[in-house]
Write a structure and sequence with these properties.
- The chain has twelve helices and five strands.
- The protein is of the alpha/beta class and 294 residues long.
- The protein is elongated.
Length: 294
């Protein structure tokens, strides 16, 4: 299939935009309470190592007799809690007053979540509690940062590799919901397919960007060559919009959601195993060739 120049241009623009997002400045303020569990401190220390000069960490210790102030320029604040002393509670209040997203990390029983949130006087959604410090940081905090600092997701993933999966999964969920809406409200048969195709291509680029893939013009041309000008993505969209032609818009939207979600999860799995962008696209194409509806 001949690749159109407009397709290359569109992908190049998308890649350039994602590259720009990856290079944005990020400032995180890290507050460690003096009696915070050692395993929590270690989990944070291992993961928050900036990969570029664009990311900065402001680190302070609460309860050590030094006054701590909220950095109003911080994109987010992460607090590793111990006994929830006065210094921490004062800082949390200050952060709320300044509208700076602030996560309070507590190693403890999840059943105590509500009590901990009340004791800290902090919003329940911003209080992350788990008995496993590694899980608390690797999964819970990663998801929270991806949601709360959405405008800098790509920069976060670019600088802190443990955030890659959470950022990629956010892109997949957003695209799945978009395609669900398209599948639900589409009126003309096939009219929604080009939009779904574009969404799927954009989703793959977002996942690739989260995993640090180069997104220059040559890579975009290579990508289009691998997927035949987007044929594999049109195939997925065709299967999604045509698999339940007589069962109603609601079911069609559900299939669009689940189909896009499955495609995104497969792409993440390939990147997790170390595959590059063309290899991931080639693997997805291979999966689709044997799918029903071809």
């Amino acid at each position: 299939m001949k690749i159109k120049g407009s397709q290359v241009q569109d992908l190049v623009k998308s890649g350039a935009k994602l590259d720009e997002e990856r290079s944005r400045d990020v400032l995180l303020q890290m507050i460690v309470e003096i009696d915070a569990p050692e395993e929590l401190v270690e989990a944070l220390r291992e993961r928050f190592v900036p990969q570029t000069a664009r990311a900065r960490l402001s680190i302070g210790v609460a309860g050590a007799g030094e006054a701590l102030d909220v950095d109003a320029g911080a994109d987010a604040i992460v607090v590793a809690a111990g006994g929830l002393g006065e210094d921490v509670r004062r800082l949390l209040q200050d952060a709320r007053d300044r509208f700076v997203p602030t996560a309070l990390l507590v190693v403890g029983a999840p059943l105590e979540h509500a009590n901990i949130a009340r004791a800290a006087g902090h919003p329940s959604a911003d209080v992350l509690v788990d008995e496993d410090a590694e899980w608390l940081v690797e999964v819970r905090l990663a998801s929270w940062l991806s949601d709360e600092v959405a405008s800098k997701r790509m920069a976060l993933a670019h600088n802190f590799p443990f955030l890659r999966r959470a950022v990629a999964e956010a892109a997949v969920r957003a695209t799945a919901w978009q395609n669900a809406v398209i599948g639900t409200v589409g009126f003309l048969p096939g009219a929604d397919m080009p939009v779904m195709t574009a969404n799927q291509m954009k989703m793959l680029l977002q996942i690739a960007a989260a995993y640090g893939e180069p997104l220059g013009p040559e890579r975009m041309k290579e990508l289009l060559a691998v997927v035949g000008g987007g044929l594999v993505f049109r195939t997925v969209a065709r299967q999604i919009v045509g698999v339940v032609p007589v069962l109603g818009w609601g079911v069609k939207g559900g299939v669009a959601y689940s189909g896009t979600l499955a495609m995104g999860k497969a792409a993440i799995a390939y990147f997790e195993r170390g595959a590059d962008l063309p290899t991931v696209a080639r693997s997805l194409a291979t999966r689709m060739r044997g799918a029903p509806g071809e």
